[in-house]
Amino acid sequence: MSAPSHRPSRNGGGRRASVVLLVRHAVTASTGVRLPGRAPGLHLSDKGRRQAEAVAARLARLRRVAAVYTSPIDRARETAAAIGKALGETPRVEPGLLEVDIGEWTGLTIARASRRPEWQAVQRHPSGFRFPGGESFMTLQARVVDAVSRLAGRHRGAVVVAVSHADPIKAAVAHALGAHLDLFQRIVVSPASVTAIAYRPSGPTVLTVNSVDGDLAALGLR
Fold this sequence. Notes:
The protein is of the alpha/beta class. It contains 6 helices and 6 strands.
């Protein structure tokens, strides 16, 4: 039996699936070193700007992109700006794509955060964890799933780009896969990667996760 096609097929109503391309922002000087959370004033590094230009070039090959949305945070907006320029679209801010609010953990080095007793809960039982003074992972997932679903509904049958952050994207993927939130840390979402989810009346389909190179037209998005 042949493998099922990942091409966004037409549904029973004669419409194409709506596809949301979730792009993680490119790197900053603190990526992989600190937990920046929602702290303002953190900009893309030189490497990050090159990454943003590279993912923008990949997305520019697609013809069906109807809109570009972005988290309000600087590093996401700068990544979205490069993508918008390549696509001829002005990025629109969508608060639902925000990074998880890590409250009192904002600015901690990853090494220091990993020594905290709560770190094991973050990694193994995130569904039961709320950051001190911040947001729970359950709230994060509900927020981002609502946002992505609204974007898909707003642009029926089209492709939209949504620039966000690692944890929101992983939470959206886990929901689309029907995986428990406690398993979402097993999903890898690299800087400037593309994750594609197709939305149909029958439910979401994950087309690709953490795509960092190659022609996205292979997903049937031209």
